């Protein structure tokens, strides 16, 4: 009696184990099929607008898609949602944290410097982008942009302000270099100060000597000049455009903040 | 009677227009508030795991987050979904298209070459990543990886195969350079051929002379050697790691395919 009960128990345990094993096997098979499905049907998904637009946005940040004038027009609502529903701020915040992770390894000795771009890096022009650029679906209008800048109402990107303050406390020299025109210096300074960006050591705006040059060339020349004339040692460069941090004296590692709305050479 | 009816009609039209205008104004106000909300609450969103993980993944592709060993463990389900539910293949497809957009501007003259990495670039090891690496939540195990490679079962990434074939037709030399070991040459060749990657002119695997070097140094040296000894002119380099395409002779523009599962120096 005891033996038969033990045998029954043993059989039940074995049956249960076999059932688990079978279920696991089936689950792995189903899982493998999912992978195959996804793979064989990538082309199907590429015709799904939202999936394509998310792919487009990711490839912009990876610097695979370059020299574009407008966002793909059918991506308007995906870009708008990205900008307005919070993921944009999260991505900026993670980017800022990554820059701090890198820079916190340096012991700033008085020469160590970081270069920051302004628009979409320290300050947000999102209101302009929404109302005038319509999230990258209309061509850049420098008159309208300058009018917007002249109002001095761009809010700080809070995660960038946090990064800026940590670098200030750590003894880095903070250099700001923007594509905004020299004529907009006073309002730009006022806007930066009002938003908490104080104690920077340089604010470089685009003077006439740089007219006709790309942002990449202008910013590279500006950094090289500061290195030569003032002894700055740039440890990194932070901008929302690849052109912010190309060329000379940009540091070993640079940081690209997200921006799916416009591309500046 | 006619005049009063006309006046009534006119009033109705004006009232309707005013209503539209008011609705529009309110909608713009609501819209502006949304922006402010998103902005002031970015920190709230940064505590949302999915939003953080999407931000982490995007910042990996922007080369802001470097030198990581494991994905953030709480991002496992976000990475798994990304890999399995199709967005990964779409992002790869958009990246492949971007590479073709760039390369189609060259007129290949017999020396023009493109360097491709293998794993997660031409072939997918997704089955290994799912079952053994568990999407980047376990440390790299070279024995297990070599056993997987030795099976020769990695499927082609279809969008990469399409790019590869277009480049072949356009007269580019196709050079393949992988971190896989020289001992795995036969099975790697068989796998590549079976998946449609034919007519490449070089297949460079990691020989003992490169032991102890990072992938970035090994691949840069391999390209420089091919340029010097065989006269290749690399127009671009395509890989899923930044180390695939760093250093010498990589071409003017390189392409980074998505990979949120592992990072190779």
From TrEMBL, chains A, B:
<dbReference type="Pfam" id="PF03767">
    <property type="entry name" value="Acid_phosphat_B"/>
</dbReference>
<feature type="signal peptide">
    <location>
        <begin position="1"/>
        <end position="23"/>
    </location>
</feature>
<dbReference type="InterPro" id="IPR023214">
    <property type="entry name" value="HAD_sf"/>
</dbReference>
<dbReference type="InterPro" id="IPR005519">
    <property type="entry name" value="Acid_phosphat_B-like"/>
</dbReference>
<protein>
    <recommendedName>
        <fullName>Acid phosphatase</fullName>
    </recommendedName>
</protein>
<keyword id="KW-0325">Glycoprotein</keyword>
<keyword id="KW-0732">Signal</keyword>
<dbReference type="InterPro" id="IPR014403">
    <property type="entry name" value="APS1/VSP"/>
</dbReference>
<dbReference type="InterPro" id="IPR036412">
    <property type="entry name" value="HAD-like_sf"/>
</dbReference>
<comment type="similarity">
    <text>Belongs to the APS1/VSP family.</text>
</comment>
């Amino acid at each position: 009696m005891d033996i038969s009960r033990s045998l029954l128990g043993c059989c039940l345990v074995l049956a249960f184990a076999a059932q688990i094993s079978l279920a696991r096997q089936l689950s792995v098979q189903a899982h493998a099929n999912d992978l195959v499905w996804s793979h064989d049907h990538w082309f199907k998904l590429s015709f799904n607008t939202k999936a394509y637009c998310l792919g487009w946005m990711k490839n912009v940040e990876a610097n695979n898609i370059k020299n574009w004038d407008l966002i793909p027009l059918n991506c308007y609502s995906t870009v708008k949602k990205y900008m307005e529903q919070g993921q944009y701020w999260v991505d900026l915040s993670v980017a800022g944290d990554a820059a701090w992770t890198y820079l916190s390894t340096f012991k700033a000795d008085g020469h160590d410097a970081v270069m920051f771009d302004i628009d979409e890096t320290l300050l947000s022009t999102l209101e302009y982008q929404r109302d005038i650029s319509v999230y990258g679906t209309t061509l850049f209008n420098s008159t309208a942009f300058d009018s917007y800048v002249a109002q001095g109402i761009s809010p700080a990107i809070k995660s960038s302000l946090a990064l800026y303050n940590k670098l200030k406390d750590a003894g880095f020299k903070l250099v700001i270099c923007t594509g905004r025109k020299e004529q907009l210096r006073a309002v730009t300074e006022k806007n930066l100060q009002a938003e908490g960006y104080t104690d920077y050591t340089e604010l470089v705006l685009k003077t006439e000597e740089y007219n006709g040059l790309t942002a990449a060339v202008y910013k590279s020349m500006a950094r090289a000049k500061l290195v030569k004339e003032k002894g700055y040692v740039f440890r990194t460069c932070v901008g929302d455009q690849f052109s912010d941090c190309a060329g000379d004296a940009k540091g070993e590692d640079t940081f690209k903040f997200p921006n799916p709305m416009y591309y500046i050479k």
